[in-house]
Request: fold
Amino acid sequence: MSVANLCHRLQPQVSARTAAGFAEVVRRLSAPLQVAVAGRIKSGKSTLVNALIGRRVAPTDVGECTRLVTRFQYGTVDRIEVVFAGGRKQVLPFAPDGSIPAELGVDIAEVSHIEAYLTNAVLQGMTVIDTPGLGSLDAASVSRTEELLGAAKQDEGAENPGELDRTSHNAVAGAEAVLYVVTQGVRADDQQVLAAFTAATAGREAGPVNAIAVLNKADTIAPESVQGAGNDIWKAATILAEKQAALLKPRVADVLPVIGLIAESAESGQFTSADAEALRQLSTLDEAVLETMLVATDIFTSWECDVPTGTRLRLLEKLDLYGVRCAIDAIRADPQITAGSLRRMLLEASGLAGVRARLNVVFAARADGIKAAAALASVTALAHASGNPAERQRVHDAIEVLLAKPEAHQLRLLEALTLVVAGAVDMPEDLAEEVLRVGSNADIDAQLGLPGGTRADLAAHALERAGWWRSFASFGATPAQSRVAHVVHRAYFLIWQQLRENRR
Reply:
C-alpha cells in the first residue's frame, strides 16, 4: 500500500504520460503476482504450466501458440482473447479438449500475445505467463523469441541494442518473477538469457528474490552418468540440480528436479481409471518380460502382450517409461491400490509438490514485497523516461523518503540484495553469501543458516550478527558496503525482536 500511496501522491506532480504509467503500476500492485515461465524450446515449459495450473490448457506440441506469449489469469468466464499489435482483441473458443487451439486462424505476425482467462483457483493468487522457447529451429520463431528475450536480434530502428520490440515488451510487461526451466545441460549463456528475460519483464535482473529454476524431464537422466547416484534416477536428478544451482546462482534461488509430463498427467485429470487398469494388467506380466519391455519405448510398444499397442502408446504419452515403471511397482507393492491413490503416488513421484512449496516460499510468501520492489523499479524507470530532470528528482526524493520508513524495511532488504547480486556493490564472498541467505529466504531458521535451531539459539545468533554488521557498517566498510550493512543489521535486529516477542 505504501508504494501505491506514493504513486497517488505523485500523479498530480508529474506529466500526464508519467501519471498514466503510475496508474498502471498501482493496478499491477492490486493484481496477483505475475510469474513468467521461461526456457529453451522443448524444455517442457508448457507442460509444466499445465501442471501448475492443474489443467491441460497450454498447447505442448509445436504450433502457432507455442511461438506466442500466453498469459493465464483468473476470470469468471473461461475465454481466450487474441490481442493484436494495435490493441484490437478477438475472442476465440477453447478447443474441444479444453486447450488453446493449436492454430488460431489469424496472421500471427500481427498478434501481440494471447490472454487466457480461466475459472481456476490457482490463478486467483498467481498469473502464469507462458513464453516462447529460445532455440527454435523455425527462423521466424527464433527471431520472435530472441527479440522477446532481448538476447540477440532486434527490430530495425530499435533505439538501443538489446531493447525489446514494443509489441513484445507490452506483452510481457508486468511479470515480477520468473520460473526458469532447464533440462540436463545448463548452457553457458543461460545466465545471460535469464538476466535478459527478467530485465525485460520486471525491469530488473533475475536474482534469488524473484527467480527459481527447475530441472525438467528428470526421468531422462542416466543415473550411471552422475557420480554418487548409484542406480537411483531421482538421486541423480537431485545431484544434477544442485550442480546446476551452483552454475545459475545467484540468478536463481534454487534449482529443483521435476518430471513435468507425469505432473501434468496426474494433476490435470489426464490419468484415468482406464490407465490404472491397463497398468494393472501390465503388472501381471512375467518379471523378465516386463523388464525387457521397459528397456526402451519401441520395445514397450511393439512387444506382443494382452494390453493393446494403442493403450501402451497412451501410457507413454502420459507417463513415459519411468512413470509406467513407478506405477507398476506401486501396484505390485499393493495390488488393491485404487486409481486415485495411484494418481497421488505419481504426482508425488513427479516432484511437483517440491516446486510448489518452493514457489510458495520464494514467491507467494513475499508476493507483496516482490511486487512492491518491481513497482518501485517501474516508477523509477518512468521518471527517467520522462526526460524532465525536475520530475526525475521529485520522484527520486519521494522514493528515498518512503524507503527510510521502518515499514519499508523489506523493500530496503530486497534492494540491497539486488545490488549485491548484480555486482553493483562489491562485497567479500562470505558476506555476499550472507546477504543472499538473509534476503532470499522467508523462514527465520533459513535466513540465519541454522535449520532446526532452538528459538534461544536463533535469537542469540541474530543478535550477534546484528552487532557484527553494525560494527562493519561503521568501521572498515566502503560507503556503498556500509549502506548494505546497515540494512542487513536492521534485518537481523528485527529477526531477534520477532523471536523475543514470540517467546513471551
Notes: The chain has a mean pLDDT of 82. The beta strands are 33-39, 70-74, 79-84, 89-92, 111-118, 126-130, 177-182, 211-215, 255-257. The longest helix spans residues 309-333.
